[in-house]
Specification:
The complex is a heterotetramer of chains A (273), B (415), C (125) and D (312). Chain A has 273 residues and is mainly α. Chain A contains 14 helices and no strands. Chain B is built from 19 helices and eleven strands. The relative contact order of chain B is 0.16. The chains are: A mainly alpha (273), B alpha/beta (415), C alpha+beta (125), D mainly alpha (312).
């Protein structure tokens, strides 16, 4: 009987290794192209990089003001992540309460999710210009300060916290705000991690909104740097793929750093009532 | 502007109410200059601005450069918000669309007042940006299509000089097609393929631009022959599916007989094609001298607060600036004096580029594919997908052109 | 020692900051913009008094920036180079042009001595 | 300063009303920031689009009443609309396959396998990437000459001549869908893992005691309990029909012809490419209604209520 169990374990490992290989192939392919300069239209493509060198990364660093774009993207992402955690927690806590019109509010949130941002560019720009936030970090971050999926993640995490704990805290005379901070948040650190990673991803990858709202090149973010790179180098050299690697690295870095909490957040946030 | 944002950061932050107090600071006279993907000439353009501002105290010029596909998004959002850049550089017929919308200033009175400026430019190219008889833009740099051909492939197929007619193109292409090699390839964006129809006497619209006139037996016959040639591999399929990197890359790979494209394609092909030398790359006009222009123009936004300053900047760029631009980027600027001088120098320093740029100034009276339409992109969206279906053999030529005619007529009626 | 010091949210940023500092220190020490090298003919003999041209890469085009001549032992020296991607080429009336050497630097104006000399295809008479 | 408790309901009513109103005030204050942002950047723009879709509007000309002309134009004359609608439905229709694939991987990873966390991270690694960069990578992998996919197919001998994936009318859309699934697969897997681990173990123990085979356990226990997670995956799948705008913009830009045109790219091209803002607004309204209907259907199918992540 035991070989049967071990046999199924090997089968599972084999399947997962296969899946991982398919998922990792594009990463390898972009890395391989980033470190070589051979004519990338030659056939057959070489599987192993031929005479690899890292100078493409140096070209990218100097071709566009990479540190400046990196700084802009980081500032916007920090702004978005911080506000996301605060606003989403507040909204989620409100949604755990029952008040008249709660179902309507949930439906409003769900339908807001379905409005594509690409179609709302012009009114969004007009509103931001009325608020005087054009060409500023706050303006870049404004539409992303709160996201609906994250509110639901927090809502599930708050509902997983036993009601008895919340009532005990209220009896001790804690104010609502302190209840969120002292009782609910510590128990849902994993949901916080989820918020951090998702908010970071969506603010870091925003492409169309920064394009519209920034005027000076010094205010642009990394995706716009990539678009400018694309326009001029027309992917004929390895440098474009070196740039893609340098743009992907921070997202992967943040995910791997917050990965333990993030996975635990999504996997235990909504459980163990 | 800045004070309001700092106030916002320190204030309630997200709950920002609409602030009533506009900051009326005595801003210096400022104009903004939006260019189309010319970031590689940053030092030159910064130099222009420095020189322009030096002897005009209190004037500021803000320079913005955007990638081609991003200019419509950026410019129109700014237009709606009422803060468009004062001077804008557009490619092909996009400028006419903005003029038709009323976004660009009519330059005819200024040109009439300063004949010296008007006579500076090649009249045919200047008239490319005339919408309903009024001039809206000045040439920044100009290009039109020509025929590049692979001399070694020509010699191998026993051909000596470039084809002089549509049939000659098809025959020459057939002789060179074998295995991976194909005979002919063209670019297809912004009507660049239209000379193939013009040399057969087929025109898209009537002279008064009100009715489509391409759905004729001759038009169907030409489309059919192109489709059959594509089917047989004589015409490389990338002509109808590629955009810029694919067609030029294929010609640079060295197994395509002819490339019908405009002059900037040369620099891409030279960058990628090791085989490209003055001896191996042939340059000629398309049969009949027909060519579709794809030039860059400079216009002034009607909502500009300093139109005179913008006009002054326009005159500066198309005179002093043109000289530098022509030399740095090896192109033709439409400024007659500058072009003749640059071409004279180029004849000695780079004969191949000289022969290419010379074609851009010849047969300028036979320019086609440049109908002065206010809704050019809509007519193009109505016509091209149908033609593409026919050329790729997904529809027979007759039904494709009939569908295209119905759609183009509808777009023309909508205005 | 408080536990959070050892958490990765502190260790990793510190490591990155450390690496960035040492790297910038190294750059500050080595960015004089000096380029030295030798020019030899096909058989390896130094070529005196050859013109050496330094070209700088600008987007996709290489523009000539400086010229210098080699000394009696075929050595040449450039100063004040501000770019990170260069090409070098030697030229004499008798031997024509040498191969065009692509020189890639780790940072702008990095001081460098060519490990391989610039080689002419032809031999000195 | 509590009043004497003896007074009758009127005063208790006032106090009661005061507590409820205090709670209502608290709820609105907590919701205010998020609501402000959604109102400014989602609701107002939708209203703007609604208003525009019934007018002839262009930036510098005074708007004229258009009634339902744009909708009529869309339904009767614009066959690119029908093509992009078909493509969008195919795009959304592909997400169940991706969800099934993610369910398979989640079941494999969810066991006590050594190193399951490593596999989990690898599969999820593709989600945080920038879609523009993913588009560049996949466009390069699908390349006819230098791409790895064509190379692998020819080495295996499946194909004699390389397939121009992104230039052929029938291969372009599936290729873009595969790239999108590659990126979103990890996110589906994580959501399903969330659901899997919220299923109490005692249900499985009871079933195995009764001798129910593993497959029956899956159909009667795992799948029904996973309904909220599957609903969230379906919603993410629906959202992807417009969040993958960047992927299509970089990979094929709607080409060849309109083979990979989605509603969102058609909206973008009509609005900014052809300066038909009023027509693009009408398209936006139609897309919003379509997505709302699809979400309602997914909600009904999943049986969950609007708060999708809420436990039963």
């Amino acid at each position: 009987m035991i070989p049967m169990r071990r046999h199924s374990q090997y089968m599972r490992h084999a399947a997962l290794v296969g899946v991982s290989a398919i998922m990792l192939l594009p990463f390898y392919w972009v890395l391989k192209t980033a470190v070589t300069n051979e004519n990338i239209y030659a056939y057959p493509p070489r599987l192993l990089p031929e005479s690899p060198h890292l100078f493409n990364f140096v070209d990218v660093w100097y071709f566009i003001p990479f540190p400046r774009y990196l700084l802009n993207s980081l500032v916007v992402s920090v702004l978005v992540v911080a506000s996301n955690v605060v606003f989403n927690a507040m909204a989620a806590y409100a949604l755990t309460k029952n008040f008249p019109g709660k179902r309507a509010m949930l439906l409003l949130f769900l339908s807001c999710m379905l409005i594509p941002f690409q179609a709302t560019i012009i009114p969004a720009y007009l509103i931001t210009s009325k608020l005087g936030l054009l060409n500023s970090y706050l303006g870049l971050a404004f539409p992303l300060l709160s996201t609906i999926v994250c509110i639901f993640v927090f809502k599930a995490a708050f509902e997983a916290v036993p009601q008895s704990l919340v009532d005990a805290a209220r009896i001790d005379g804690l104010s609502e705000g302190r209840i969120i901070l002292r009782v609910l948040m510590p128990l849902s650190t994993a949901a916080v991690a989820t918020n951090v990673v998702l908010a970071f991803i969506w603010s870091w990858n925003a492409f169309l909104w920064p394009l519209i709202i920034t005027r000076e090149p010094t205010m642009q973010t990394l995706p716009l740097g990539l678009a400018r790179f694309l326009s001029y180098m027309e992917d004929t050299t390895g440098a474009l793929y070196a740039f893609a690697v340098m743009v992907l690295a921070p997202s992967i870095f943040v995910f791997l750093m917050a990965q333990k909490e993030f996975i635990r957040g999504l996997t235990s946030g909504a459980t163990k009532g | 502007m800045i004070s309001r944002r700092a106030l916002l950061k320190s204030g309630a932050g997200a709950a920002a109410a609409t602030l009533a107090a506009p900051a009326i600071a005595q801003a210096p006279k400022k104009i903004s200059f939006l260019t189309w993907n010319i970031i590689d000439q940053e030092p030159m353009i910064r130099g222009w601005i420095a020189r322009f501002v030096k002897d005009r105290p209190g004037v500021e010029v803000e320079w913005l450069d955007k990638k081609g596909p991003e200019i419509p998004v950026f410019y129109q959002t700014q237009l709606v918000a009422g803060t468009p850049p004062d001077v804008i550089n557009t490619q092909g017929a996009l400028g006419l669309e903005y003029a038709a919308q009323g976004a660009l200033l009519d330059l005819t009175p200024r040109l009439k007042a300063e004949a010296s400026v008007r006579n500076r430019f090649n009249a045919d190219y200047l008239s490319n940006w005339a919408y309903e008889g009024k001039n809206y833009m000045l040439p920044f740099y100009i290009t039109k299509t020509l025929l590049f051909y692979n001399k070694p492939m020509f010699q191998k197929a026993g051909l000596s000089d470039p084809p002089q007619s549509f049939d000659a193109i098809i025959d020459a292409a057939q002789k060179m097609t074998s295995g991976e090699a194909s005979g002919f390839l063209t670019l297809n964006f912004d009507w660049l393929y239209w000379p193939l129809y013009a040399m057969n006497g087929v025109d898209l619209l009537s002279t008064d631009l009100t009715k489509p006139t391409f759905n004729t037996p001759k038009g169907i016959e030409v489309t059919d022959r192109l489709a059959k040639a594509t089917e047989a591999g004589t015409i490389n399929k990338i002509s109808w599916t590629g955009r810029w990197v694919e067609p030029n890359g294929a010609f640079a790979a060295g197994n395509v007989g002819m490339l019908h494209a405009h002059s900037p394609a040369y620099f891409f092909v030279k960058g990628q094609g090791k085989w490209v030398t003055p001896e191996t790359l042939g340059v000629a006009h398309a049969p009949g001298g027909f060519a579709t222009p794809n030039s860059h123009g400079l216009g002034i936004s009607t909502a500009s607060k300093n139109p005179d300053l913008a006009w002054d900047f326009l005159k500066f760029v198309t005179d002093e600036g043109a000289q530098e631009l022509g030399v740095n980027r090896k192109l033709v600027t439409g400024n007659i004096a500058v072009d003749t001088k640059n071409l004279a120098d180029l004849e000695k320093s780079d004969p191949l580029v000289y022969s290419i740029l010379r074609t851009q100034l010849e047969h300028t009276d036979r320019m086609v594919g440049n109908w002065r339409l206010g809704n050019d992109s809509r007519v193009k969206e109505a016509f091209w997908p149908e033609l593409q279906n026919a050329l790729l053999g997904r529809k027979d030529a007759k039904t494709a052109l009939a569908d295209a005619e119905r759609k183009v007529a509808r777009e023309l009626k909508r205005g | 020692m408080p536990r959070w010091i050892m958490s990765r949210w502190v260790i990793v940023p510190l490591v990155i900051a450390g690496f960035a500092l040492t790297w910038n220190g190294y750059v500050a020490l080595n960015d004089g913009g000096r380029i030295e090298g030798r020019v030899v003919d096909a058989s390896g003999r130094p070529v005196p008094d050859a013109t050496v041209i330094l070209l700088e890469r600008h987007f996709v085009v290489h523009n000539e920036r400086q010229r210098t001549r080699t000394d009696s032992e075929g050595r040449f020296r450039f100063a004040g180079n501000g770019n990170h991607s260069l090409q070098l080429e030697a030229e004499t009336d008798s031997l024509g042009r040498s191969e065009r050497r692509i020189v890639r630097l780790w940072f702008r104006a990095q001081n460098i001595t060519l490990s391989e000399p610039l080689r002419f295809n032809a031999k000195l008479p | 300063m509590m009043q004497a408790a003896g007074q009758v309901s009127g005063e208790r009513g006032a106090w009661w009303r005061k507590k409820r109103t205090r709670e209502l005030v608290l709820v609105t204050c907590l919701l205010l920031p998020s609501l402000a942002i959604f109102f400014l950047y989602r609701v107002l723009p939708l209203g703007w689009n609604l208003l525009l879709s019934v007018q002839y509007w262009s930036p510098l000309k005074p708007p004229r009443w258009a009634g339902l002309d744009h909708y009529e134009e869309m339904l009767l004359y614009d066959d690119v609309f029908w093509q992009s609608l078909k493509n969008t439905l195919i795009f959304i229709g592909a997400s169940p396959f991706a969800i099934a694939l993610a369910l398979g991987i989640a079941l494999l990873v969810n066991s006590d396998l050594k190193g399951a966390a490593v596999y989990r991270s690898i599969v999820f690694l593709s989600y945080p990437l920038m879609t523009v960069a993913v588009g560049i990578i996949w466009r390069w992998m699908y390349d006819e000459r230098g791409g790895i996919i064509n190379f692998a197919l020819r080495e295996i001998g499946l194909v004699a001549k390389p397939i121009p994936f992104l230039q052929s009318f029938d291969w372009a859309l599936p290729s873009v869908i595969v790239a999108e699934i590659w990126q979103v697969l990890g996110f589906y897997m994580i959501i399903i893992l969330t659901g899997l681990q919220s299923i109490p173990q005692h249900l499985y123990e009871a079933a195995s005691i009764d001798g129910a085979p593993r497959l029956a356990q899956f159909w009667r226990i795992t799948l029904p309990m996973l309904r909220p997670s599957l609903f969230l995956c379906a919603v993410v799948g629906i959202l992807n029909s417009f969040t993958s705008f960047d992927l299509i913009y970089v990979m094929t830009n709607g080409g060849p012809g309109h083979a990979t045109e989605l509603l969102i790219t058609h909206i973008y091209k009509s609005g900014f490419g052809q300066t038909k803002f009023d027509y693009a607004a009408a398209l936006t309204v139609v897309q919003f209604i379509l997505l709302l209907a699809l979400t309602y259907l997914a909600n009904r199918a999943a049986g969950g209520n609007a708060g999708s992540l809420e436990r039963q």
